[in-house]
Design goal:
Length: about 290
């Protein structure tokens, strides 16, 4: 084995023994432009290098490294990609130079595929088949959990029901590349816009329904003396204010004045400090009208 090959093996983190290579392109890289050359090899990456790649794609899909058991189970399958039909180790080293400088080295399998691409496809297949684990709150582990939480919050902020199963599937589809977060978010906003057509343009443009409803939520909180944190878009009183019907039969939003009058006719208002204070003021005014109070 030549010193140059030893240096190449060392740079690729490959086993140093048993290398048999035949250069398919030995031309010296030019000092300008892009140049690619390949070399056939009789070695494969070390177990440690393969496990590094396995961990890389476990991080991509699961947000964690593979467990020792998962790595051990996958190693034989990955190493088999470097065997020729007669059982001999065979691979291809592909080097890319730019202006005479080595910029990229790929260690291709016997089938001429990139090892990372192969591992990515296998773990993706496994991920879609079984899905990530979920915690006690039914939130998936890893990147899918972040998308799951984000989509559930977006649905809540726009008054759209979204089951855990649907949110989990959307999250997995985003992680696996079948769709993207913007597409799923757009679908949720379309649903909200169809439920509240008077706000359609604003919702589609990115304003959450919860933001548009906030003046009504705060008004209800103040008049009925209910914490605003206990009022959301599923509240029937809020929904009736946002989705009222006008004289022409078309959806419209009640004015805040109309909404305030509605709240003061609500039986709950009679139990508030606001109501007692108003009644006391009315009683005092009656006494003044009869000259019995000043």
């Amino acid at each position: 084995m030549t010193a140059a090959w030893d240096a190449l093996v060392k740079s690729l983190n490959l086993p140093s023994g048993g290398a048999n290579t035949t250069a398919t392109s030995t031309a010296k890289p030019p000092k300008s432009g892009t140049f690619t050359r390949t070399q056939e090899s009789g070695t494969m990456p070390s177990d440690a290098a393969i496990v590094d790649d396995i961990n890389k794609y476990y991080q991509k899909y699961y947000g964690r490294n593979a467990t020792p058991q998962e790595s051990i189970a996958m190693l034989p399958e990955v190493k088999a990609q470097y065997l020729s039909p007669d059982g001999q180790t065979k691979s291809t080293i592909k080097e890319t130079y730019e202006n005479g400088i080595l910029k990229d080295t790929k260690y291709l399998t016997n089938q001429g595929t990139d090892l990372g691409d192969y591992i990515d496809a296998r773990i993706k297949q496994q991920y879609l088949s079984g899905g990530p684990a979920v915690n006690k709150l039914n939130i998936p582990e890893g990147p899918a959990g972040q998308y799951f939480t984000s989509l559930k919050n977006l649905a809540f902020q726009n008054g759209i029901p979204l089951s855990d199963d649907a949110a989990r599937q959307h999250a997995m589809d985003i992680v696996s590349g079948k769709t993207d977060e913007n597409t799923v978010s757009g679908l949720l906003r379309e649903s909200a816009a169809s439920l509240y057509p008077q706000f359609s343009d604003k919702i589609k443009a990115g304003t959450n329904l919860k933001t548009l409803a906030d003046p009504y939520i705060q008004t209800m909180s103040n008049i009925l003396e209910i914490p605003s944190t206990g009022i959301d878009l599923s509240n029937d009183t809020i929904k009736s204010a946002l989705n009222a019907v006008g004289p022409d039969g078309k959806p419209q939003t009640k004015s805040l004045y109309e909404f305030e009058q509605q709240l003061r006719n609500d039986p709950r208002w009679g139990y508030t400090q606001n109501a007692r204070q108003s009644l006391d003021n009315v009683g005092l005014q009656v006494l003044r009208n009869f000259g019995l109070a000043y």
